[in-house]
Amino acid sequence: MSGNTQTYGHIPSNEHVHDHVTEQGEHIISTDAKIADIGSWLKRGWQDMAESPGISFFYGAIMALSVVLVYFSFRSNPIHMFTIATVFVMLSPFLATGLYYAAKQLEEGKKPKLIDSMVSWKANAGDIGFYAAVLGVITAAWAIFTPLLAAIVAQSHGLLIVDPSLGLMGFVLSEAGLKFMAYFVVLAVALTAFVFTISVVTIPLLMKDKNIGAVQAMIISFQISMENKLVMAVWASVIAVLLAIAIFSLGLGMLIVMPLLGYASWHAFNDLVKIVPANK
């Protein structure tokens, strides 16, 4: 049901809402967002960082260290480097689970604990695990496909790195490297856009409503993304730009970007989704 004007809980009766009925009879009510809401999500995410600096630093540092390790491990193999960077972006909704937990605790007026945030997925282990497995299959397929794409480009251009001593720059500046990057970027954007649509509210929904399954949560996430195409496109672009800055700063930016986006995504979920139990 779309464009409903009923009143659900504390949702204003004049607000444009969409009713998604689950198999259990629950109503997942999504409201239309505005581009201006993105600034509010980021602002509240920043406030959460200030209220929970320890947890924020921990998750930011883990991602920063990961970027550094990937760079120094694969700087002589740019194809692997770009592949893993894309995998990081696609897995980021799952990697942010602990941050969603912290934001949820702060929302409830509680002080989040780091240890609890690290095992927060256990609250709905089966469905969150299934969702993580879906992301794992997608990223594994991408990791297998990327070298095939490189091989196709190499067939017509020879070695992808013209001067191995130049490393990453030699790859990017070569004719074959430019062609590979053109194909890679188009396909990576298309795939990450799809992952974004099935992920934007999935884990927060699974954490807040244990009655809903992973598949249904992903379907609802996709539907909500389609209901808010422009806002979600802008939000995805903001996420992509911030993650790119964090990655290209050799991971240093992850200290801020990772927790900021994790908390902001929780607030985006809260603004977009309201859950009405089946007995109401």
TrEMBL record:
Positions of transmembrane segments: 55-74, 81-103, 128-150, 180-207, 228-261
InterPro entries per the record? DUF2189
Is Transmembrane one of the keywords UniProt gives this record?
yes
**Any Pfam family:** DUF2189
Query: Which keywords does this Swiss-Prot/TrEMBL entry list?
Result: Membrane, Transmembrane, Transmembrane helix
**Could you confirm whether the keyword Membrane appears in this record?**
yes
Q: Where would one find the signal peptide in this protein? A: none
Name the UniProt record assigns to this protein: Cytochrome C oxidase subunit I
The top of its lineage is:
Bacteria, Pseudomonadati, Pseudomonadota, Gammaproteobacteria, Thiotrichales
